[in-house]
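Subject: sequence -> structure tokens, single chain

Hey, anyone have a minute? Need the predicted structure for the following. Not urgent.
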Amino acid sequence: MKKLCLVCMCMIISSVYSCSKEKVDEYAMITFMIGDVKRNNAAVEIGEIIKEKDEIITAADSFCDVKIGDSIIRIKEGSKVVISNIIRKDNSESTTLGLDVGKMLCKPKKLIKSESFIVKTPTAVAGVRGTNFSVEADAMKTTRIKVFDGKIQIAKRVKQFEGSIEKVLEQAPILEKEKKVVITAKEVQKVEAAADKLIKEGKGKEISTIITQLKNESAISKESIQNFKPEDFSREGKEIVTIQIKPREVIQRIIKVIAQEKEMPKADGRLLVTRYEIYFIKNGKVVWEGNVVEGPLNRDKRIYIASGDYVFCAASDGPVLWRKNLKNDGKLKIIDNSLVISSEGKESKLDLETGEKL
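Reply:
Had a minute. Here:
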């Protein structure tokens, strides 16, 4: 009996330790997503832990936010990303990401000297320190990088230099705020051909020497660097600023409502309103997110709220009663049994019961 008690106690301690370890492992996790996202070819859920070598794929009209330490990335629709390396030591972090195709918005934390945040595409490698930037890679292996804030070091990704990325970045030129660059596969192939030639001629010459010799060829030319168009900066810059690591309690609330919707699906989905955001959840996933401009109006056990392109009416416990696609500035009022919505100085009236225009 004593032995049995001892075994049970060990199992309980082991279970507690495992739970504690799981919390530590939340260093890298999916903090939010909209639409269909897969990790290693399996459907992923908000709150899921991310590990080294994981492959994340987003479908059309989908995206996901991944927290890695104090840094965050948004993997946009139609993308394939590999979490190549996640290195933690004491309070420092070093991350390497591989974007095979698609687009990422990156917000790494401000790094100290011993830390690194590196993004690789088929044709480029970028090293940053607290820089907000976007990176794209298409099916032709063309890379496009834009810097919204701070500075970034960029070089062509040469296969012969793959084991010496740090050395390559040491010699790489800096791309500054509001600048963008395009790198093509053809440009990289020229450097790789030159590297092959030097390696054959070098007879044992160290790769670091060859990297130095080809410094100008592997660097980004001044002609490739361009200024942003104002519309580029306003559109993408606004999105990257709003990307944040969501509080744990918000993530838990989203997970709870998703579970409710999976267990007891509603024909028109469910609405979750937090202090700052609105989430529309249907078919077991978040399909829309908006910002709270003004708090919801409450009437007859219903709530009414608007944001961006939608106006919602939901039961007080969450099920959506109706949803109207109507551009608005988030301001609502109820006058004479109708819902009045403001948009760009104009007002529209909707029926409180059905959402139809009056």
